[in-house]
Amino acid sequence: MWTSFTDRGRLGAVTALFAALVLSGCASKGGVGLEGSAEGGTSKYEQQKDGGAAADSDAIHIPPVPHDPAVEKYAEQAMAEYARALQTRMAGKDKEALVMFRSLGERFPQLSGPHLNVGLIYMEQEDYAKAQQAFEQSLAINDANPYAHNGLGLALREQGQFDDARIHYERALVLDPKYARAHFNLAVLAELYMQDLNLALEHFQAYQNLQKLPDENVANWIVDLQRRAPDAPSQPVANQDAGNKNGELN
Question: How far does Cα 109 stand from its chain's mean position?
Answer without folding.
Answer: 21
